[in-house]
Design brief:
The structure holds 2 protein chains of 2 kinds. By secondary structure, chain A is an alpha+beta fold. In chain A, 54% of the residues lie in helices and 16% in strands. Chain A has a 6-stranded mixed sheet, with no helix packed on it. Chain B is of the alpha+beta class. Helix content of chain B is 59%, strand content 14%. Chain B contains 4 helices and 3 strands. In chain B, strand 2 and strand 3 form a beta hairpin. The chains are: A alpha+beta, B alpha+beta.
């Protein structure tokens, strides 16, 4: 946006750029200075102005209404430089030399110098000074600083050094030199006027302070000054906070954008050495989408959908920081279009993805449990030593996907010996697809004597797709067999049926025996039996065996008793029969 | 050398017909006498003030009214004088340079 100045040339009004105006005015002043005779000068200038008005009229039209510097240059091309107006008259030599000095003044362009610009500064004016030197918009210099700041902070040191080294442009001449502007009459006039005003202000201040003779008035002045100082500090603080918010907005935006791009490229994103491993994230997407094309389209879609708010944030930050405005309509429409496209891409790929979950199938296999004991213990063991990156229900590493959807149950069987049944379920595009995926797994388990160790997860290859696979582990027990549920199984046991309807968290830590009616707790009246070590477990088992023997002995006794009672009863019956025969 | 020659040319142009500044310029540019319009304005004003030229205002479609210059009777006799002086000068130069 440029300020325009209205000028009246030979009765016609023109809108002239501020910049072009001062240039044009200088030109006319220089031309005027060529003529000594006042009466003659008025007429000549009027003629020249009329002609310029006519020429300028040709430069404007409906779509271009403002006279620019280029137009003025074109006019000067036609009309000639100030010295071209000079004519040899009576006192030719003198007027010539004067004309030359004037015109050379008009032509004079000061050498450019690097100054800090105090009129357009955020911190110190270094950036706008550099921008003025190269004739570019300060925003590029500022963005370069921000970029350099991320380059190990080198930007910061360079900035501070420049701040120290570059002088501030204090006088008008220095400000003109900073831009390499032509030092012309009107600029100097402006500078003189500013200086005059400054001096006048100072003089006024001085006069005022001189008037303030009594102490009270002086004190009031001091208070006023303090209030003004506090206000100006507050204003600066507020401005700083506001600009800081702008910086934060921009930085966050840029980081998210970089992050999204590196996610898209599948690279690790590094912030000060804290690598966020996106490899895993893309691994998840790989495990979901059938083809890498679908994954890419999905990622691009996310990127595009996220673009609008992020770029919006960056632009807002830039606006706060640099007062930089974009052509609102275009930006807005563009961002909306990108978002909508991104949404469509996400929607399309997700629809395909959901289709991959449309059927379900299961696959079962059994594992025989050996040994001749009748009591077993179930325990959860971690078979993998690798440190898992995250404790999630679905973890992806380079080698495998680790799924935690495992359920353990205990059921009765008519068979002679106990066994484990593993059933996996999977979703898929169709039943065949789902069944293939259900088969593709590894489940760690082992039996050591009577202890059965189970994993609380199962593995599928990292190349396999994730289709909501889950695993059901069932221990089938014939009647008379018992099982100890270790505390560690609490994570995987799920709603095991038992005679007393005991809840899962009360089932662990106890012995359960399979009866005709179902599972019965053997030691639920006591405290929970804690799992200790294998040796302790062994001794516990021995103890249990002792108990069992005692129980058996007791049973023998009772049997003896019962037999004895039966004998007695039979004897009694015999006796009764004999008595009847006697009668 | 150019002193007086430009004035002579301007009067000569206006002797044919009345003209606007840019018309005069076109002729002078063609003859490479001058290149910029600026030179012309002071000359025209001075010739007019000397009574050799007169002007009238004419409305213009593209801008302010234009000043159309015409030669006066005095101007015509001055032009004749200048012409004679010029012929003499040309003759003198010819004689001098051909030897």
């Amino acid at each position: 946006m440029n300020k325009t100045i209205n000028i009246n040339l030979a009765g016609i009004i023109f809108h002239v750029d501020e910049d072009a105006y001062s240039y044009f005015n200088t030109y006319l002043q220089s031309v005027k200075a060529q003529f000594d005779n006042a009466e003659e000068r008025e007429e000549i200038i009027a003629d020249i102005e009329a002609r310029i008005a006519e020429l300028l009229q040709g430069k404007i039209n409906d779509s271009k209404q403002v006279i620019t510097r280029a137009d003025v240059d074109a006019i000067i091309e036609v009309m000639g430089k100030p010295e071209d107006f000079a004519t040899e008259d009576e006192d030719g030599a003198q007027s010539n030399s004067k004309a030359k000095s004037d015109s050379s003044n008009f032509e004079y362009a000061g050498p450019k110098r690097l100054f800090r610009n105090p009129d357009d500064k955020i911190l110190s004016g270094v950036s706008s000074g550099i921008a003025a030197y190269f004739g570019i918009d300060p925003i590029w210099v500022r963005l370069a600083w921000v970029a350099l700041l991320f380059g190990a902070g080198t930007g910061f040191f360079i900035y501070v050094i420049l701040w120290i080294v570059m002088p501030e442009a204090k006088t008008t001449a220095q400000k003109l030199q900073m831009r390499g502007e032509k030092i012309n009459i009107s600029n100097i006039e402006r500078s003189v006027k500013e200086e005059m005003k400054d001096v006048k202000d100072r003089f006024e201040n001085y006069k005022n302070s001189g008037k303030a003779k009594n102490v009270g008035e002086k004190a009031r002045n001091i208070i006023e000054e303090i209030v003004a100082a506090v206000l100006s500090i507050l204003k600066h603080v507020f401005e700083f906070v506001f600009k800081f918010m702008g910086i934060i907005l921009m930085i966050i935006g840029v980081f998210i954008l970089i992050g999204l791009f590196s996610l898209f490229l599948g690279n690790d994103f590094n912030i000060n050495g804290n690598a966020i491993d996106y490899g895993y994230l893309t691994g998840y997407l790989d495990a979901l989408f059938i083809t890498s094309t679908q994954k890419s389209i999905f990622l691009i879609g996310v990127l595009m959908l996220a673009m609008a708010p992020i770029i919006g944030a960056i632009l807002l930050g830039m606006r706060i920081l640099f007062n930089y405005r974009t052509k609102g309509k275009f930006t807005f429409a563009g961002l909306i279009t990108i978002s909508v496209l991104g949404f469509i891409m996400i929607f399309a790929t997700l629809t395909l993805l959901v289709k991959g979950f449309s059927s379900e199938a299961s696959y079962s296999e059994t594992i025989e449990i050996g040994g001749d004991g009748k009591a077993y213990a179930l325990r959860v063991s971690d078979f993998i030593d690798d440190e898992r990156p995250y404790d999630l229900d679905w973890t992806i590493t380079e080698k495998y996907q680790l799924l935690a959807d495992v359920e353990l149950n205990v059921k009765p069987t008519q068979k002679e010996t106990p066994y484990l049944e593993l059933t996996t379920e999977s979703q898929g595009q169709n039943r065949l697809d789902a069944r293939q995926r259900a088969k593709n797994y590894t489940y760690y388990n082992e039996q050591i004597d009577t202890v059965i160790n189970l994993a609380n997860y199962f593995l599928v290859p990292s190349s396999e797709k994730y289709r909501a696979q889950n695993l059901n582990v069932v221990l089938y027990l014939p009647v008379g067999y018992s099982v100890y549920l270790d505390e560690s199984t609490i994570d995987i046991i799920y709603d095991i049926e038992n005679v007393t309807d005991t809840r899962d968290d009360n089932m662990v830590g106890h012995f359960w025996v399979m009866t005709q009616n179902g599972l019965v707790c053997m030691d639920c009246n006591n405290e929970k039996t804690e799992w200790k070590s294998d040796e302790e477990w062994k001794s516990y088992e021995d103890e249990f065996e002792d108990d069992a023997k005692a129980f058996e002995n007791d049973a023998d006794k009772r049997l003896d008793d019962a037999e004895r009672k039966l004998k007695e009863a039979q004897e009694e019956i015999e006796n009764l029969k004999k008595e009847q025969q006697k009668k | 050398m150019r002193k007086g020659v430009l004035e002579f040319c301007i009067l000569a142009v206006l002797d044919h017909k009345d003209a606007y500044t840019s018309d005069i310029i076109d002729v002078l540019k063609e003859g490479k006498m001058i290149v910029v319009e600026g030179t012309l304005y002071p000359l025209l004003t001075r010739l007019k003030n000397a009574g050799l030229l007169a002007y009238r205002w004419e409305e213009s479609k593209s801008g302010p009214p234009r000043k159309y210059y015409s030669i006066t009777a005095e101007g015509k006799s001055f032009l004749a004088d200048l012409d004679m002086t010029w012929q003499e000068l040309v003759h003198a130069v010819e004689v001098t340079t051909s030897k």
